[in-house]
Design goal:
single chain, 297 residues, disordered N terminus, binds S-adenosylmethionine
């Protein structure tokens, strides 16, 4: 993989995230979703030490694309682990990070992942039907071409909240019997052709693509385990800050903060992006920020 030019991903709600992490210079913070490093950079600028995690091999290329990351690493302020945040405690242990004052999860995919057609995340970009953030395990093409009609319909319904899930799954099965569905564009066309005619507020493939991405990356399972791990790793009064982008994720975060004996929610309602940010960063539109603090046992 080649080094990447300046980060195209614009961090969401950076000021709010930093404020909620209540940064103490010299203390350790874990950025579980490094991406292009926008949030991590702000933490370092405030004198925090950062353990950055990302499961995408692309993230590591950003660390070599910019001298300031190398300087922070040499100073001992930045450590990086490529892997899943569900294994947060193992990553912290292996990197020798203890006494964690804050954990950040900025969920979902980055703009780089979406915009890179080859990664197969987006129905608007032609590419192989892949969608794996970690470049390992089952791809979206494996799921679409091998799962039973019932399993496909269940995934599309549960993770896409798609009310036409059975119609879509039936059409996928019909079409793959003619020829395997291996590209994003073909899947987008197949899904669109299963939709009843009429006016639409969104692209008919949006929900099916979301569902496949969540399934392929086990995003909700990883989130649940990541939250549990963060609540164990944090020191008392440490902050857990989570940015989610759809209701399935936000529900899990909300429930976790209410139910966990280790955490106390600090946000009654999720915080959204400011009008100013909404005007310049479309990705911030669906963002919901929730914050918890670790309580004494
Ligand atoms: C929204 S982007 C983060 C952007 C970042 N905050 C920034 O400012 O550039 C989400 C990143 O989290 C990573 N990611 C998503 N789920 C993950 C998981 N379970 N474990 C590790 N990384 C994950 C993705 O690969 C992606 O790079």
């Amino acid at each position: 993989m080649t080094a990447v030019e300046p980060a195209p991903h614009v961090s969401v709600m950076p000021a709010e995230v930093i404020e909620q992490l209540a940064v103490t210079p010299g203390a350790w913070y874990v950025d579980c979703t490094f991406g292009a490093g926008g949030h991590a950079r702000k933490l370092l600028e405030l004198g925090a030490k950062v353990l950055a995690i990302d499961q995408d091999p692309l993230a590591a290329t950003f660390l070599t694309a910019d001298e300031s990351w190398a300087r922070a690493t040499t100073r001992g302020d930045l450590r990086f682990a490529q892997g899943n945040f569900r294994d947060l405690e193992r990553h912290a242990f292996e990197q020798g990070v203890t006494g964690v004052a804050g954990v950040l999860l900025d969920l979902g995919v980055s703009s780089m992942q979406i915009d890179e057609g080859e990664r197969g995340f987006a129905f608007r970009h032609e590419g192989p039907l892949d969608m794996r953030m970690a470049a390992e395990g089952e791809s979206a093409a494996d799921v679409v071409n091998e799962y039973s009609l019932e399993d496909l319909a269940a995934i599309i319904f549960r993770y896409g909240e798609e009310r036409h899930s059975r119609r879509v799954a039936r059409r996928i099965v019909q079409e793959r019997d003619q020829a395997p569905i291996t590209t994003t564009q073909r899947l987008a066309e197949v899904v669109a052709s299963a939709y009843p005619p009429g006016p639409r507020r969104e692209h008919p493939a949006r929900r099916t693509f979301q569902a496949l991405r969540i399934h392929v990356n086990d995003e909700l399972g990883a989130l649940q385990e990541g939250l549990e791990a963060a609540s164990r790793l944090l020191e008392v009064e440490g902050r857990l800050v989570v940015l989610s982008y759809h209701s399935l994720e936000d529900r899990i975060v909300k429930r976790f903060l209410l139910d966990s004996p280790r955490m106390e929610p600090l946000t009654k309602r999720p915080v959204g992006a400011s009008e100013e940010e909404l005007a310049v960063n479309p990705r911030s539109r669906s963002a919901k920020l929730r914050v918890g603090a670790k309580v004494a046992a």
